[in-house]
Design a protein that fits this description.
Six copies of one chain form a homohexamer. With 238 residues, chain A is of the alpha+beta class. Chain A has six helices and nine strands. In chain A, 32% of the residues lie in helices and 29% in strands. At the E-F interface, helix 2, strand 8, strand 9 and helix 6 of E face helix 2, strand 8, strand 9 and helix 6 of F.
Chain lengths: 238, 238, 238, 238, 238, 238
C-alpha cells in the first residue's frame, strides 16, 4: 500500500495553470499533487558567447527552491553564496531535456531561459519542472511566432518527465516525498511525445537493482509520461 | 491622474491568503494589486550565537525575488553568488520591523525566520513583505501557543508598511511600479497599530523634498497603514 | 545629561582637513568629535555600462572601516570575502546623497568615486562620510574646472548629514557611540543647503516613535545641518 | 569503424597500478587507454555532522581535473573559486556508487574520502574514477583490517563503471573522447559484481533513443563491466 | 642621482606617532616619507584552533590599502570579494616577522592581531608595516604587563624592515615608488636588533643579480635597519 | 646526520620525464626524491588585457597540490572556493622566475601558462616546480620554433631552484619534508645558468640567522643549482 493510497501506476492529480504570472513570455504553475513549481520562460535577443555568430539559439534552465518549500527550512542559496550540487544537477537536466525537443537552429540567435522555482515540495520537483517548463517554453516560442519574429514554432516534439521507483519491493509511478525518501531505487525518466528517451537516470539508494526491475520501472514511466503529455496537450489546446 | 486611475489616497486591492503553502508554521500569500509575495515563518528551537544563553528569542527575515518576477529577467542571486545591496537592505528592514512588535524575551530561546519571496513585482514589495510577514509571524507564534510551548502570544502590537511618494507633483499612496520608477520622492513607512513609527525612509530620487511635502506623505501613509492593519485583523480574525 | 555633557542641540567639534592625502583628486579628513573618516574622490574618464553613450556622468561611493576603528576588532571585510549588509546600505546612501546635488548631465561621461574609510569610529560615521565626501567631491570637480575639462562646477547645492535620536526620553543632536547604542530612536537626515531633504531614515531601536517626536528630531537635524554646511563653506572658502 | 579501430564491444587497454603514491591509505593509478586518473583513499577517524553519534561511517568522493588534462587548457577550479556543475555531478556519482557496496554500519564512525584527479583525459573519466576508486577504497579498508581497527572488510560487493553510447548508429562500449564528443546517446552504467545496477545515466546528446537502443547499450555495458571487475580482482589478487 | 635627491644610503624622513587612534591596545601611525601606514594591535583572549590547549599565544597580521592610497585608484578588496596574492604575501610576511621576536610561550593563550592599513603609498609599505607593527605590538604587550596579565614583556628582540634595490646600476636604501617601479632588483630585509636576519626576499625585476650586488644590498639594509631600530627605541622611550 | 643519510651538500635523486602527458605543448614529470610534480606548458595566442597591443608576450604559472599529496589530506582548494596564501605565493614565484629568463618581447603576443601540480609532496615542491616548469616551457617554445611561429627560442638563460636550510645547526642542501618542518632557517634560491640570482627568499622559522649562515646557505645553493641545470641540459639534450 502506498502512503497516498494510490495504485502503483497512478499519477498524482496534475494541474497546469498557464499565464500564472504577468511579466514572463511564458509562465506556468504546475502541480504534481502537493509539489508546486512556477516555471517561467524569458526570451533574450542574444546568445551566450560560445554561440555568438553561429546563427543558432539556446535554451537553458535555472532551478531554485524557496527555503521553506520543504518540511524543514533549508538554507537560502543566495545567502550561502552558492548553489548546491543537487541544484546544479537538476538545472542542467532541465536544460538538456528542453533543448532535446527544440530546433535550436530554427530559433535564431536567441536564448530562452526557463526558471523553475519550487514553492512547495513533495517529491518529483525536477520532473514537474521539465513537464511545466515545456509549457512555458511552448508559450514563449508561440509568442515569438505571433509577433512575427519566427516563421514557425521551433519545437520538434513534446517532452515530459516522471519519477518511478521501487518502494517496499514494488515498482511505483510518480513518487511523493514519503516514497522518495524511503525507496530502494529511484529513477527519473524524460521522454518525448514519440516515446523515445531523452534521459534515464536510475539510482540505487539502497539495494542495487536488477535488469528486470529496471524494465518494470521503464514500463511504468512510459505509461505515466504518455498521460503527462496528454495533460500538456490539453493545457496548450493543441 | 495616476497610471492606475486610483485616487491619491487609495490603496491597491489587498488580498491576504493564509496557509498558502503546507510546510511552514506560518505561510501567507499577500497581494498589493499585482505585487505578490509569499511570506513564510519558520520556527527553530535555537538562537544565533550572539543570543545563546540569554533566554531571549530572535526574529529575522530573508528576502528574495524570482528572476522573472519583474518585467525584465534579473540575475538569480544564488547563481551570481551574492545578494545585492538592495536585497540586504530590504531583509534587514523587514527583520527590524517585525522585531519591533515582538516581545523577544517572552519568545524564549527560539528563532523565527520570515522568508519573503516575491513571485510577481509591481512596486511596494518590501511593504507587502512586512505586512504579510506579520501575519505569517502571528500564525507561527499562535501555533506555539496552541502547542503549549508559549503561555501567551509574544506580540506587542500590529505592524504594517506602505510606500508613499510625490508623483507628478502630487502626494500619492501605495506606489505601483510605474509610479515608483517615475516619482520624485519615495518614502516607505512602517507603523504600528497604535499609530507610532517603526521606520520612516524617505528618499529624493529627483528633487529634494520639503518639510511640507514630508508631512503630506506621512499623513497619507498613516491613513493607508490603518487600512492595512484592518486587513490584517480581518485576515487573522482578531 | 548626555554622556559627553553636550547640550541637546550641540554638535561635536567638527574639523575638516582638505588635501589630507596626496594622490586623490579630492582628499578630506573629516572629524565629528572622535569619529574620523578619510574621504577621497577619484575621477575616472568613463562611466559604468548602464550609462555608456548617454552623455551623462555618475557619482558613486564605497565605504569601509578599519578593523580596529571600533572598540572591539571587527572582521576585515576583504578577508571575509564580502561586505556586510550594513556597509552596503551606507555606501548606497552616500552615493544617492551626493548624486542628489550633482548635475550629472553637466559632468559628462565621467565617474567620480567617493571612498569613505573610517579610521576611528564614535557614532555618526555615515553622516560624517556624506558631509566630508561632499568636500572631496567639490575639490575633485573644481580640479576638473581648473584643468579646463568642465566649463563650470556641476554642483547644484550643498549637502550634509547628521544623526539625531531620542536618548533617555530627550531629542538630541549628533549622537556619539554611547548615545547611538543606547537610544530609543535613531534618525539620519541628509539635507541640502536650501533646507530640503535628500534622505530621512528614522528607525525605532526600542519603542516606536510618535509623530511629535519625529518633528522634534527633524527640527534638531535642520539646525545641525545648517551649521555643518557653514563648516563646509568655511573649509572650501566659498 | 570506430576512430580507435576497436570492435564495438572492446574495452580500451586497462591498467591498474596500486600504491601509486606514498601517503594515502589507498592510492591507485587507473588507465582506460589514454584516460589516466589518480584515485586515493584517505581515512579520517570522524564523520560529518549529520552522522555524529549514529555509529555509522561514510564514504565520499571529490573529483578534479588538472587544467591541461584536456586538449585545450581549462580554467583551474581553485582559481575560479568554484567547482563546475559537471564536477559536482561526477563527484556525487562516484560517492553514491562506492557507498552502494560499502557496509557503512560495519565501518564505524569513520569517513573515507576518495579523491579522483584526472591527469590525462580521453573520455570516460568518471567511469575510470569509480573503477579505480573502488580499488583505493578496498586497499584503505584492508589496511584498517590489518591494523586491527576493523574485524572484517566492510565491502558487500565489487563495483565498476563503463560508458556506452550510440556512435554513428552503432552501440559501442567504452567511449573515448572522439566518440564521446560525437555520439548521439551517451550512457554511464555502474554495476556490481553480482550484475545489479547501482546507477544508469543515459542522455540523448542528439536524437532521443529508443527502448531497443537502451537494451543494446545495457547489454554492452554488462559485458564490459564484468571484464572490468575481473581486472579489479586481478589487481587486488582476490 | 636618486629621484628624491637622497644619497644612496639615506632613509626617507621617518615619523612614528603612538596612540594614533583611540580604541586599539596599540595604535601607531608610521611614515617613511610619503608612505603612511596605520598599525594597530588588538588583543584577544583566545587562540586559533590549531593552538587550543597548548598554552601558547599567537601573533598574526592583516594588511590592506585604501583604494586611493595609490596614484591610480585600485579596486577595494572587500568589494571584489577577495584579497590579492600580493596582499596575502605581505600579511604573511608581517606576521612571521613579528612572531620571530615574540616569546609565544610566554604570551599565554592570547592572540595579538596587527592590522596594517596603508592610507598613503609611496613604496616600502610592507617594511613600514613591520617597523610600525612592532611598536603597536610592543604597546599592546606593555599594556598587558601593566594590567598584571603578563609578568614580563614577552619580546625577545627588536625587529624592523627596509627595502633596498639596484636602481640605475647603484645599490640604494629605502626605495620610494619611482625607484621601486624602475629598479632592476628589489630586496626586502627584515632584521633584529642583534643584527640577525628574520627574512631576506630579493627579486630580480629585470636583470638577475650577482652575489656581489647581493652583498652590497645587505650592507645597506643592515645600516638602514639599525637606524630604524633607533627610531623605534626613541619612540618607545626604551 | 640528515634523516635521509645524505651528506650536507647532496641533492636527492633527480628524475625528469618529458612528454609525460599527451595534450600539453610541454609536459614534464619532475622528481626531487619523493617529491613529484607534473609541470605542463600551455600556449595561448593572446595576452592578458594589460599587455594587449604592446607586441609582448607573457609567462604565468599556477600551482596546486592533490589533496592527498601530503601525509595528512588537505582540503581541496576548488572545494573551499579559494587558493591559500601559500599557493598564491608559490605560483607568483614560479611565474616571476620563468619570466626572468624568457625574452618576452621576442615571444610575441602569446601567453604561456605553466601548471605545476604536485602529485606527491616531500619538501621542495616550489623548487621542483620551477626546475621542471623551465623544461616544460622550453619544450613549448621549441614547438613554436619548429612550427615556424617563432624564428628563434626566446629563452635567455637556464633557471632552476633549490631549497637550503639550517638543520640541527648545519647548512644542508635540498631539504626533504622532515628537514623542512624541523629546520631553523629555510631558504629558497632561484638561479640562472650564468650563476646570477633571480630570487632569494630566506626565512627564519626559529632563530634568526646570521650573515655567515646566509653565506654558507648561498654557497650550497649555488653548487646544487649548477647540478640541477646539468640535469636540465641532459634532459633537453642541449
Amino acid at each position: 500500500m502506498r502512503p497516498s493510497a494510490r495504485t502503483a501506476d497512478a499519477l498524482r492529480p496534475i494541474r497546469i495553470t498557464r499565464q500564472y504570472t504577468r511579466h514572463a513570455e511564458g509562465s506556468v504553475l504546475i502541480e504534481f499533487g502537493d509539489t508546486k513549481v512556477i516555471c517561467t520562460a524569458s526570451v533574450e535577443e542574444s546568445v551566450p558567447p560560445f554561440l555568438k555568430g553561429k546563427g543558432e539559439g539556446w535554451v537553458t534552465a535555472e532551478y531554485g527552491m524557496l527555503p521553506r518549500a520543504t518540511n524543514t527550512r533549508s538554507r537560502r542559496e543566495a545567502a550561502s553564496g552558492k548553489q548546491t550540487g543537487r541544484t546544479q544537477e537538476i538545472q542542467r537536466l532541465i536544460g538538456r531535456s528542453l533543448r532535446a525537443v527544440t530546433d535550436l537552429s530554427a530559433l535564431g540567435e536567441r536564448q530562452i531561459t526557463i526558471d523553475c522555482d519550487v514553492i512547495q515540495a513533495d517529491g518529483g520537483t525536477r520532473c514537474a519542472s521539465i513537464t511545466g517548463g515545456f509549457i512555458a517554453l511552448h508559450d514563449a516560442l508561440s509568442a515569438l511566432v505571433t509577433a512575427g519574429k519566427l516563421p514557425a514554432l521551433p519545437i520538434k516534439d513534446f517532452v515530459a518527465a516522471v519519477s518511478v521507483g521501487i518502494y517496499q519491493g514494488q515498482a511505483v509511478l510518480d513518487l511523493d516525498y514519503p516514497e522518495d525518501s524511503g525507496c530502494e531505487t529511484d529513477m527519473n525518466v524524460v521522454m518525448t511525445g514519440s516515446g523515445r528517451f531523452v534521459e534515464v537516470q536510475g539510482t540505487a539508494e539502497g539495494e542495487p537493482f536488477s535488469r528486470d526491475e529496471m524494465n518494470a520501472l521503464l514500463d511504468l514511466a512510459d505509461a505515466g509520461i504518455r498521460q503527462l503529455i496528454d495533460f500538456q496537450r490539453k493545457a496548450l489546446g493543441v
